[in-house]
Amino acid sequence: MSFWNQLVDRFRGGGEEIDWEALLIEADLGIKLATEWVDELRESGLARSPEKAELYLREKMTKLVRIPPPLPIRQKPEVILLIGVNGSGKTTTAAKLGARAQQEGRVVHLGAADTFRAAAAEQLEAWGGRLGIPVTSAAPGTDPASVAVRSLFAAQETKVDLLIIDTAGRQANKRNLLLELEKIKRSLQKKTEGVPHHTWLVADGTTGSGVLAQANEFHQAIGLTGLIVTKLDGSARGGMVAAVRAEVGLPTYYLGRGEKPEDLKRFEVREFVDNFFGD
Ligand SMILES: Nc1nc2c(ncn2[C@@H]2O[C@H](COP(=O)(O)OP(=O)(O)OP(=O)(O)O)[C@@H](O)[C@H]2O)c(=O)[nH]1
Ligand SMILES: [Mg+2]
User: Fold this and answer.
1) Residue among 247, 274, 257, 249 nearest 28 (CA)
2) Ligand 1 interacting residues, C-beta cut-off 6 A
3) Which of 86, 115, 259, when mutated, tests ligand 1's pocket best, judged by the most ligand atoms within 8 Å of its CB?
């Protein structure tokens, strides 16, 4: 039985009307979006029919999570900055994005701007070694902004197509760590206007509504352009993709469904919606 149908069964409660609000919150849609959609279900009278309600919600979801057309980037390299809380999957995602781009025929460079954890640069270097992607790194304790800038210079010199910069894990409420992120962004911008083109939050899908909170906090603090949700190979179903789009306005570009490079999937609306509600 699909995740969705399991939820419907669970919230049906004694043959009465389904508790749609509880169901949608359980599916990680967040309170605000859940309430909004449930009000619409009630007002339209669809709440009493699970089939009709599902069709309605499918359509709402499909419209909501649409991916905006890519902005034309004339500069080379295109630069992606990955940020997020500790252990969310940033370093792995940097490598996976690199591997994907390589498969598409693009030349990639990696920047290891996590100089906080001693093993962080080694972890990215190991990935670089395996994938044949050069990595700019520095000794632990080095100013991460300087490593980011050096990686930009290296990527420009070698004329690669894509630079992916990994950063240290941090909570969005730690002021000094946020300032460090701001400095990384500002230093890159100072060297080349428009860089980084993308500032993506990498968030662990198993934290459920935590993803929405993180997206809100990081977006307010330093400005995000998109989301990547990792660890969706477990029980998490990704409802937070809709919540983040509705409440923070950020599109999701990739989903992580495992630890290997090929487990990073481009976000596809149709596939996502089918997966969420069950085929
Ligand atoms: N199952 C699963 N595991 C993942 C996924 N993405 C990352 N991981 C695992 O999560 C763990 C943490 O990943 P990292 O990439 O090191 O996370 P990070 O955000 O760089 O961590 P810090 O640098 O310490 O903040 C690793 O064991 C990864 O293999 C995913 O999509 N699915
Ligand atoms: Mg890391």
Assistant:
1) 247
2) 84, 86-92, 114, 117, 120, 169, 230-231, 233, 256-259, 263
3) 259
89 alpha carbon – ligand 2 mean position (Å): 7
Run of H or E residues at 34 = helix 31-43
* Residue environment code for 133-158, b if the CB has 16+ CB neighbours within 10 A, otherwise e: bbbbbbeeebebbebbbbbbebbbee
Distance, first Cα to last Cα, the chain:
10
Cα(10) to centroid(ligand 1), Å: 32
For CA atoms 177, 183, 188, 189, give the dihedral sign.
positive
Please report the atom of ligand 1 found closest to the CA of residue 96. 6
Task: Give span(s): CATH 3.40.50.300, the chain.
Answer: 78-277
pLDDT tens for 153-199 read 999 999 999 999 999 999 988 999 999 999 999 999 999 999 999 99
0.85 exceeded by pTM: yes
* Cβ count near 189 (within 10 Å): 12
Q: Which of these, 91, 153, 163, lies nearest to 122 by C-alpha position?
A: 91
Q: What is the pLDDT of residues 35-59, one digit of tens each?
A: 999 999 999 999 999 899 999 999 9
78-277 folds as Rossmann fold (3.40.50)
Q: Is 264 helix (H, G, I), strand (E, B) or coil?
A: strand
182 burial level (CB within 10 Å; 0-12, 13-18, 19+):
middle
